[in-house]
Amino acid sequence: MRAPLLAVCIAAWSASCGPTGARVRIEPPAVTCEARCRSLASGRCECLRGCPGITVSPEECPPPPPDLRRRSRGSCPYVYLWDGRDYRYYTDLSGSVLAKGLAFFRPAFYGENIYELGPFASPGGVYRMLLREVIYESSYVDAANLVLVDVPAGYEVYNEWSFTSQLNRPPERGFVTVRGPRPPRSARSETGADVLREVSDADGVPLPVTRDQLSRVVLDFGPIAHPEHAKLILTAWGTYEDLRDLPRAAYTAGTTIETLDEGGQWRVRKVAGKAAGDARTWVIDLAGVLRQGDTRLRLTMARLPSVLDVLDAARLDDSPPVPVTVTRVAPRVAELRHGGAARVDGSTLTHRVRADNSHLPLVADALLSGWYTRYGDVRPLLQAADDRFVLMAHGDELALEYDAPPRAPGTTRRAFLAADVFYTLKDHPFGRVTTTNEPLPFHGMPSYPYPPQAWPYRHDAAYQRDLREWNTRRVEAPDR
Hints:
Oligomer: single chain
Shape: globular
Structural class: mainly beta
Largest sheet: 6 strands, antiparallel
């Protein structure tokens, strides 16, 4: 009798899927019992809410359903990298955000984004990754190419890309070599506290900050030989909440770098881009900013009405650049399919996004209504950034595979993803944004949404034909 009783305790979700082009409707939970248990003295567990008196063994306690509205702060889609045994979450693809009614986003400056992929390997000569849409958003993937950068042994390579659209400029996308970047020799917070341990390594232990503070630190890297080659390597992530109750004078749309002037006052020397979404590492060129005998700088992370950047690590390098070999690889496999939801613990002021690769029932309220790309091979849609998107709904998964070209002896390799991706928010820290994935975005649009007459494809018969051919899957969000 145990199995039927336990089944009552598990939130039942249902989905009906017909042939290509059929409507897909995700129904709300059939029961309201929480899929978690309270430990009892007997060693058994009692299901909570709605199932009084039903007990199961601890190992039979089903996992909690994803509470995506509360805990999935971040941007999408999420990236999972294959390590030879499993797909593991690495980062998200934040950058080109669409948000109806929020005019502070600047889509005119959106384009290809470069995401570093850390120690991404190619077991069997193939790089494999998943792009998963697991939270309250929908994505529009226009291109997704792997970029492999080979450098001489002993060097590392990073990219300059960061989120700069709110500074009203496109991002830098250059690859920069570093050799033995150094952590700071001292690091002090605004209060004078020693925070050297927190900012020396990208270990997930960030610079302490509260929501009413600037994320600011004074760094000293000691003497350098080549200030003309100085560059700052930052690792940071964004946290998302409504900060409008805090003083507007504290807002800054970028990463601000200051040095001391002759009078001992801090002066702004550079305003660079900000972190975008979950933890990522990027490089800021500091040529002409620092001196050989004085590398002190004050670093202030971006802080906007709905996001506060959190610093994980800051390192400095002054090595001269060396030649690199850059190879762009198109996917050999690009399959759109159902993947379900996943357990997500969104970024906070103390930790970055945590996500597993579970395949849970869809969360009905995470859906956005609209037409989405049919499941199957979608490689033709990813050949160029041409506004012919792979449209991904909550629960969709895009499986990508790339061949690994040979690497020259005496070199090391780092992988990046060059992705042209828009995503539309369903909810923002300021409230509900939209319940639909329309209108479709396009490159160069000055705002979103845009006037209907501004859509460049309204009289393009070939584009309209492609929409009818590819976007045959209708998803309906709950009416709430």
